[in-house]
Amino acid sequence: MPDVVCLGELLIDFVAVETNLPLAEVPAFRRAPGGAPANVACGVARLGRTAGFIGKIGAEPFGDFLRRTLQDARVDTSRLLSTGNARTTLAFVGVHDDGRKEIFFYRNPGADMLLGPEDIDGDYIAGAACLHFGSISMIDPGPRAATLKAVEIARKAGRLVSFDPNWRPALWPSEERGHLAIRTALGLADVVKVSGEEWRLVTGTDDLAKGAEAILAAGPRLVVASLGEKGCYFHHASGAGRVPGFRVPVVECTGAGDGFVASLLVDLLDHLEGGGRLESLTPKALERLARRANAVGALACTKPGAIPALPTRAEADELPGRRKALSIGGHAFAKARKHGTPG
What we know:
Structural class: alpha/beta
């Protein structure tokens, strides 16, 4: 069984070949495999852990391409299903130098929308160490039931459950339904990663400490905010802190957040397998996890495409400035139950 099972959407991103243009003005696009949970699965495999993916693609050339892509990345695709009832979802992506993305989806329906609870293999999930999912699989009835079933199995088996909202408002029938689904998911996860752009939507505040407290109150034990070039912020019962990012030449940021999540999960599993518990993480240990996650996210910005850009563990550890950054440590921490950390 794989160490990490990721569930959700697998699609084709058509990424703008020119940056800083509205989608309507982009002259050409480059095909790239995508879908946040699938990106995380590939990131986990690239970092040396085993990963599997649960989802649904079309029985057509784009679906075939995606299956090969995951297999080439050493992701187990035995639970990736094909259907002749819908085509693989496509997304057209406009990118900007400041990290913003403009995304337009073609899925009416997309094959990922046809995943159902009958497609969930309980033994496969219970045999993994971690289950990771996002909010897109919570939109439609079938995938939502499949996601909730998978999470229930993982929780009953005592597995680590990870959630990344990956908010895409254009896909939701209403923002209110999206908020409700995210609140539901927060209460089911052990680890939550939220991007800086999503922070206010998920927490209702721009303040990192207060927002993290609100998420922890829903049930998770670790909250991490990915803040792009500003690094990240983590919040845990043992402490909270901000960890600076790394300066790299940016080509495209499509897979940065997913690479960040993959690194976080790999290091958390190393900690758990070493006899530790999620509750026993110290601020120093969390800083080390956060620095490697920052490095992986930064390196994912240096090449085009999400999956092709995801680095290995050795590449992340060799990022210039990383070793020096690791020796700094300890200056940005605050007790987790105080709201002194800047937002």
